[in-house]
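step: validate -> pass
step: tokenize input -> pass
step: predict -> running
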Amino acid sequence: MVRDVSDKHPLYYEAKLQIRQPTDEVLVYVEKEITQADIYIAKVDKVKNGFDYYLADNNFTKSLGKHLQEKFGGELNLTSSLFSKKDGKDIFRVTILFRKASVNKGDLVMYGGDEYKVKSMGKDITIFGIKNKKKLHIKYKDMHLLRPKED
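step: predict -> pass
step: emit ->
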């Protein structure tokens, strides 16, 4: 259910969705999901390496972040800060950061001197050794250790 924000300030928002290193496909997906859910966008800022969307629904924004990670693979960070109190209840604003992974499912990569194939991308990156047949799980915060395979 979409919350009515007609009585709120035009720049009212509950959550900030930060998209970093986005592909066109990621941006189209984000815009489509926001439009389909009829979520109010207070503003969109273009920043050095992506976009910040100021949205009027915390729960939707959290859900969208999880869907981005499942669909495209990447780092997902959620933070919240106390914004206000209303009727004795704490009101929080959340910030969701999604940073698209530098590799994609099916890519050949080098890790620790060995060649691997990216098998899946969910909560982490799963790679499978071409020669050593090892299966490894790489955290997104360590994705900088994966190097594209040079031909």
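step: describe -> The beta strands are 15-20, 41-47, 50-55, 74-86, 89-100, 108-111, 114-121, 125-129, 135-138, 147-148.
step: cleanup -> pass
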